[in-house]
Specification:
CATH topology of the largest domain: Beta-lactamase
Structural class: alpha+beta
Number of helices: 13
Radius of gyration: 26 Å
Largest sheet: 5 strands, antiparallel
CATH architecture of the largest domain: 3-Layer(aba) Sandwich
């Protein structure tokens, strides 16, 4: 069939239109498909990547902050190696016992702590909260070093400061992110919005006062060779202000010993001991507890313990759960291309209490819940050995009753 010139031109235009439409539809469909695949991948990975969720919340808190300073750009040393398999600069797995001196340690606890930590790159510090004696310190180089961002473990200090300043009542419910929550729920589930809000209500100066009382920015130990004091910032961090300071610990460097000293004070009713680490059996026999200061927190401890126990029973630290009640706080975040997993804890019943602090560094598997699982393993193994069956209290005439020390 022969077509005239006008019909032929019309046919060509229709054909061109069809081709363009098909191409456009295919591109839109491909984009939609990619979005569906991306959303599906996110749902699959969000359950196993707490650091990704943490980063998203961190960004929202930064955006909502009242502080308008521009972000700080931190220059990393050019020679700092990146571990193969990911964008982190610390290995996830290592022999964490290299170089440790164990001559003054409780060897029962030492063996349990080393076995529980296993192949992970991290530190386990175990302290007697009734005396301040460090019973075991696995990976002493890491535990005594400059420290790391405390992540959500800072929320213990924030809760105590907020209760002290009456900016929050224990049963008051704040409406945040479409839901109402109280202090117990917020501690158990480590809600960042809740503690960023408390930080804004407290302000930097008040929180700084309490944080320094609780031991941030000073050495936790007494004459422990090599110990570093960590750091507490002199002003709100420019990346997110006081909200990021009180929800993620932005700008703070915390050591495992500092967290162990604070959790010991929570466990024993408010006495902040100097942590002492005997280096020999002679040191053990001559050990005398030394009090740094008495914290005015005793009346607030019954108000935060339900949240700390709730973290283990139904919150972020469920992996630490065992037969006896454990109270603790997890922390998960990233600092300088290193994932961090914290857990500070104590057994909350029985004649003998222990504080167990775990810090993990490395790549993607590193998290607060994983650190909680390691601490839970320490408690379980010691319970199987009947370690908690009898009390271990220093004789009254050997406990220093004066606030110590000037050095």
């Amino acid at each position: 069939m022969k077509m005239g010139p006008s019909v032929y031109r019309t046919f060509c235009l229709l054909l061109a239109f069809e081709l363009v439409s098909s191409y456009s539809f295919g591109a839109v469909s491909a984009r939609r498909h990619r979005r569906r695949v991306s959303a599906s991948a996110h749902r699959r990975t969000s359950a196993v990547k707490p650091a990704v969720r943490t980063a998203a919340v961190r960004a929202r808190i930064q955006a909502a902050s009242l502080v308008t300073h521009p972000p700080v750009i931190v220059q990393r040393p050019a020679a700092e190696p990146v571990i193969a398999g990911g964008p982190w600069t610390q290995p996830t797995f290592a022999d964490s016992t290299l170089g440790d001196n164990v001559d003054g340690e409780d060897l029962t606890i030492r063996r349990v702590a080393v076995d529980a930590l296993g192949i992970f790159n991290g530190s386990v510090v175990v302290v007697d909260p009734a005396t301040g004696r460090v019973l075991s310190m696995v990976n002493q180089k890491l535990a005594l070093g400059a420290g790391f961002q405390p992540c959500s473990t800072v929320k213990v200090s924030v809760a105590l400061a907020a209760l002290s300043e009456k900016v929050v009542a224990p049963d008051a419910k704040l409406r945040l992110a479409g839901m109402r929550m109280d202090l117990t729920y917020a501690l158990a589930h480590s809600n960042n919005y809740f503690f960023a809000t408390l930080g804004q209500k407290l302000g930097y100066e008040k929180f700084s006062h309490y944080a320094r009382q609780f031991g941030y920015g000073e050495k936790a130990g007494l004459d422990i060779p090599g110990e570093q004091p960590g750091r507490f910032p002199d002003a709100p961090p420019k990346n997110g202000g006081v909200g990021m300071l009180t929800s993620f610990g932005e700008g703070i460097s915390q050591t495992p010993l500092q967290l162990a000293a604070l959790m010991s004070a929570v466990a024993n009713g408010g006495t902040l001991y100097y942590l002492q680490y005997p280096r020999s059996q002679t040191d053990v026999r001559a050990f005398v507890p030394r009090v740094r200061r008495r914290l005015q927190i005793e009346s607030f401890l019954p108000l935060i313990k339900p949240g700390l126990r709730g973290a283990v029973e139904f919150g972020t630290a469920r992996r630490a759960s065992e037969d006896g009640p454990i109270a603790g706080k997890t922390g998960t975040c990233s600092e300088n291309h290193t994932h961090l997993g914290w857990f500070g804890s104590f057994n909350d019943i029985g004649p003998r209490k222990l504080v167990v602090v775990v810090l993990l560094t490395g790549g993607r598997p590193t998290s607060g819940p994983l650190a909680a699982g390691i601490a839970g393993d320490v408690y379980r193994r010691l319970s199987e050995q009947k370690y908690f069956a009898s009390a271990s209290v220093a004789p009254a005439d050997l406990v220093s009753t004066q606030i110590c020390c000037t050095r």
